[in-house]
Amino acid sequence: MARSRVAYEYTEAEDKSMRLGFLLIAAGLLSLLGLGCCWLRPALQERGGGVSANCTVLAVRQLGERFACTFSCGAACRGTARYPCLQVLVRTSRSSAPALLHEDERQLRTNPKCSYIPPCTRDDQENSENVTYKQKYWKEKVGSQPFTCYFNQHLRPDDVMLKRTHDETVLLHCFLWPLVTFLVGVLIVVLTICAKSLAVRAEAIKKKKH
């Protein structure tokens, strides 16, 4: 009995392998729980059941109001500049009421009054030129051509998104890598147990032959 017990004891290398496997399993589970509670749930709420629709531009205009943005000119250099507010009003295929177009959910949260926030530079004139370029794009290049947008009539009936911040690919990676970590941990544990079991059986067979 004593010999049998000793035979089933794990070596130092096998013990480290088992610990690594259990560590990866725990890390995978905690990552899934953490991402699910802290990131995935808000991401799904942001999507909010919004569906794709066809949008058509109704009007493109600049408001007289200017908004502040923060630019960076080095590690310890930051400042504030201003840019004009561009509004792109559209009509969706799911509603006849006009809605304000936004780049994505982040832009909507940053400035819900405008459709576009330019890359912030120190020069206000350069910021204005970037906004004017975007205005010409919507007027001349897009014009009356329909394009895909995302619309949620229940949560945000007055706003539409040009793109989603959290698309299906991002949500897939949110699940994929913690799941891979968990499965690798399980695989390490199973292979270590199987290798130990085979080694013990081989040793037992060898002793019987002798």
TrEMBL record:
Write down the membrane topology.
Answer: Multi-pass membrane protein
Task: Give the GO biological process terms.
Answer: detection of calcium ion
| Record carries keyword Transport | yes
Provide the GO MF annotations for this entry: calcium-activated potassium channel activity; potassium channel regulator activity
Main localization of the protein? Answer: membrane
**What does UniProt give as GO cellular component?**
voltage-gated potassium channel complex
* InterPro entries membership: K_chnl_Ca-activ_BK_bsu
Location relative to the cell: Membrane
Transmembrane ranges?
20-42, 175-199
Q: What domain of life?
A: Eukaryota
**Which keywords describe this protein according to UniProt?**
Glycoprotein, Ion channel, Ion transport, Membrane, Transmembrane, Transmembrane helix, Transport
Q: Which Pfam families match?
A: CaKB
Its name, as the record gives it, is: KCMB4 protein
Q: What organism does this protein naturally occur in? A: Nyctibius grandis
Identify the coding gene: Kcnmb4
